Amino acid sequence: MSSRIETDGDIRAMFAADASGLRYVPEGVARPESIEEVSEVVRQAAGSRTALTPAGMQTSTTGGSITDKGILLSLRRLGPVLDIDRKARRARVGAGAILGEVKRAAAAEGLLFAPDPTSEEESTVGGAIACNASGARTLKYGATRDHVLSVKVVLASGEIVDLRRSGLEKNTAGYAFAHEPVDWFVGSEGTLGIVVEADLALLPLPERVIGLEIPFTNELDALEFVVAARESSAVSPRCLEYFDELAVGIARAAESRRSGLDMRADLVPASGTMVYVEQEASGDAALDAWLSLAESQRSRVDDVRVFDGEKALATARRIPHAVPSTMNERGAGHRGAGGRKVSTDWAVPYRRLQEAIAMSRELARQAGIAQAVTYGHAGNGHPHQNYIARNAAELEAIERVVEETLRYVVAMGGTVSAEHGIGKLKRRWLALQLSPLELGVMRAVKNELDPQGILAPGNIF
Question: Which domains are present in the chain?
Answer without folding.
Answer: 81-204 (3.30.465.10), 208-423 (3.40.462.10)
